[in-house]
Amino acid sequence: MSTDQTSLKRRVEELEELQRFAHLLSTTLGISETLDVIAEHCMSMFNAERASIMLVTSHGVDTVRTIVRRTGVPDQEIEHLVNNLVAGWVMYHAKPLVTDDVVKALSMRDISKQIQQLGPALAVPLSIGGKVIGVINIVNSPGGRLFSEDDSRAATIVASTAAQFIHRAEVYASIAEDNVRLKKALREQQHPDLILGDSPAMKEIRDKIRLVAETSSTVLLTGETGTGKELAAKTIHTMSPRAGKPFVAVNCAAIPEALFESELFGHERGAFTGAPEMRKGKFELAHEGTIFLDEISWMPLALQPKLLRVLQERTVSRLGASMETNVDVRVIAASSRDLEHASQLGEFRQELFHRLNVVPLRLLPLREHRQDIPLLAETFLDTFSGGAKRFSSDGMELLTKAAWPGNVRELRNAMERVSIFVPSLEVTEFHLKGLGIGEQEHGTSDLSIVFRQLVRSNDRNADLLENAEKSFVQLAMQEAQGNVSQASRLLGIDRKALERRIEKFGL
Predict the structure, then answer these.
(1) Predicted pLDDT of residue 369
(2) Which residues of 126-136 are buried (b: 16+ CB within 10 A; e: fewer)?
(3) 193: which DSSP letter?
(4) pTM, whole model, 2 decimals?
(5) Which comes out higher in pLDDT, residue 63 or 215?
(6) Angle between helices 373-385 and 407-421 (to 10 degrees)
(7) Distances (CA, A) of 306 to 160, 312, 319, 352
(8) In 3D, which of 451, 370, 452 has the Cα closest to residue 403?
(9) At what angle do helices 3-26 and 149-187 cross, to 10 degrees?
(10) Are strands 219-222 and 330-335 parallel, antiparallel or unpaired?
(11) Which of 61, 237, 240, 381 has the fewest CB atoms in 10 Å of its CB?
(12) 449 pLDDT more than 90
């Protein structure tokens, strides 16, 4: 076999290994499980005796922590000193470390017997958006296998994939913690009243929520983005007899189409490649509680009949299962899109729409209940500032006249910015305009706001149009929670075209 053929074969094997690696990581959510998979894979792929993963906190190199470590030699202590020195070297030089003798490369003296057992090493940075969040360090004993430049190249690719999944796991952990805190806060209130507003329209919505909460009827929440559909769903659940049972939220817009059925209904062991064990779907996890199907319009048409059957029969069938499982679940669906119109266009199944639309509840955009803006703004600012700040009369007038295209969510985020960046205890019109809040009168295009912010932040020597394109790609990826397929649909462009832009802008 020629050198070129050998090189090509090695590259193909690397690609296959990376594909298996990415697929295995895609089935993990917890941070510990994710780090374990990465460490085990690195030892296997690079024929290494030891593998450590160090993560860096926001305080910098001084707080490098060895999070997980795997070794073929049992009962060995972690080489914290070496790990910190290696991480410092990689972060300082911003490139991989490849050495036949890690002790010599780090110029270490008076070393312990434990450190004397370290020889060839390969360390690569874990980076997200150009920021190093950690380091993978794989090591062999003196006289063991040496690491090559090809290993360094492959390890860099592994680290790039690993960093994305570490970030995902951290976000998942943060969301899980937030959910726990929210559920605890809700249960402490005997009569939760989380939908704020004194206007007649908001009082009517709260009355409807109280009525429907006592039933097990299916609810369809509609309304623009940011109107509080998930908050309404949680309130319905918390005020219902199912309050002590699970509330499982599913963002249908964030699930890749190929994983939809497994995510909702689960799968048996070996049901498909990469299914090493049985996994319950969201419906089973929500048994006796409530499942919230957010942005239901994103559900693939081909899968909608199966959801319809689950709603009718109250049973689920896992992928690869021969028997069905009974589930007792209250379903709340939500959509920022007009599902009735979508069903008329053939883009959403009519029978599923009618099955979901048992109790329709429309949540209002902020422009339809402007009289609630003062209460909402003061409540949010009071929460974020610990009650220390208040609005002047001209500041509040500006807020009530602002467009708020992002509705309550946008108002809440704006109040968080105010609590951080406004130094005085009284928030005035001048302070708000300085933060780009409420500069346009009601009805002014939201794109004008975006344009002005880009102009202000843009380097005068830079290409504004290219920066604007980069900003929209970033926003789409954030809105899609990192899902490239969903982001391409939001932007109305082909997935490959979006991938080229992501690569172009180094996102």
Answers:
(1) 92
(2) bbeeeebbbbb
(3) -
(4) 0.51
(5) 215
(6) 40
(7) 37, 10, 12, 10
(8) 370
(9) 10
(10) parallel
(11) 61
(12) no
